[in-house]
Amino acid sequence: MLRRLRLKFICINMVTVTAMLCVILGLVYHFTRMNLEQESLRLMQTAVERPFQPGPPGQLPEQLPLPCYFILRSGRDGMDIVAQSGYDLTDQALLESCLEAALASGAPVGVLEDYGLRFCRAARPGEVRFIFAGISSERTTLKNLLGTSLLVGAVSFIAFLGISLLLARWAVGPVERAWAQQKQFVADASHELKTPLTVIMTNAELLQSGAPEQVPRASRSILAMSRQMRGLVEGLLELARADAGTARDALVPLDFSKLVSDALLPFEPILFEAGLDFTSRVEPGIRLTGNPGQLRQVVHILLDNARKYTSPNGQVTVDLRRRGRGRCVLSAATSGQPLTRQERTDIFKRFYRTDPARAMDQSYGLGLSIAQTIVLAHQGRIWAESGGQVNTFFVELPL
């Protein structure tokens, strides 16, 4: 699928580039041809319409900037040559043929393809003047321009093909990573569900065996595994809702200081019962625009994470304060084994746990991933730092 996507991207890009190159080079060729033709006609009309003034034989009083031309006059006395440059006009029959062809066309300007000439006519009382100019140099210029355009087009096509290959790899990269993450997510979710399902099935078989002494233990085990599965499914649903961007659907102005203070209250007795020393410092009057339910969930995730991973009799400190004029920072510091640099990155991955044994403590490795998704949806950022024997999680949000 990803290979077809890259190929489709390259094809669309190259079709677009080829069409643009053809249009641009075609316009350059067209306007160059028009300019050459118009400039030649302008010079010819100027020459043929000026009154004849005597001068040196074989040329006009002012030489025209045309490579090859000649002017014929047809009147009552017949045909004669007014001026010429670059032509051997000894062939009288050729001159008469050119004049007859120009007269037969009936147009004031035109091209004699058989002779490779462009003509322009000006009528005067008792005579008609024709100027004939060669178009071979003009066509040579256009031929060279066409060859240059084809060469430039070919080189540009090859260059853009190489760029398209690089762009395709860059553009499809996020899709490839998302696809890999999705496959990993499915594999991890299947693995997390497999163990409790196996336990439930085993205990259900014990119940079917009809042994009375196995009923209490089997039923307790089924209930515990069912609760574990429910917690995992609820976590998956929360993650799906966060990925769907529902945080942006209910943004309202709120007092973030009050929201954090209210979210801390239920955890104070829980942390006290766990033997942890809990302190909080919340700067009042911090207001922002956000989704109250999901921001409260972020606070709960940080505190629940602190409850599970703080060392026995350790310290938990929550702090909320302004940072600069347009940001605020919520931090949750816990004492315990410091996280390595790699762990500080991996803990935000789905189903990642620094201690796999915590799976039986309703820890599925989804909480921080959900928090990260919510914070990113609020245009904020979340990260972890470790120093000494303290791990600190930071959430920065715009006011």
Basic shape: elongated
Low-confidence stretches: 57-61
* Computed structural class: alpha+beta
Q: If strands are numbered along the chain, what order do they take across the biggest sheet? A: 2-1-5-4-3
Number of helices: 9
**Through-space gap between termini:** 42 Å
Summarize the biggest pleated sheet.
5 strands, antiparallel
Q: What is the oligomer described by this structure?
A: single chain
Q: What features would you describe in this structure?
A:
With 399 residues, the chain is an alpha+beta fold. 54% of the residues lie in helices and 21% in strands. It is built from 9 helices and 12 strands. A 5-stranded antiparallel β-sheet has the order 2-1-5-4-3. The protein has a 5-stranded mixed β-sheet with strand order 7-9-10-12-11. Strands 6-8 form a two-stranded antiparallel ribbon. Helix 1 runs antiparallel to helix 3 (136-208), helix 3 (136-208) packs antiparallel against helix 4 and helix 7 (292-309) packs antiparallel against helix 9. The longest helix has 73 residues, at 136-208. The two termini are 42 Å apart.
Concise structural overview:
The chain is of the alpha+beta class and 399 residues long. Helix content is 54%, strand content 21%. Strand 3 (109-112) and strand 4 (117-124) form a beta hairpin.
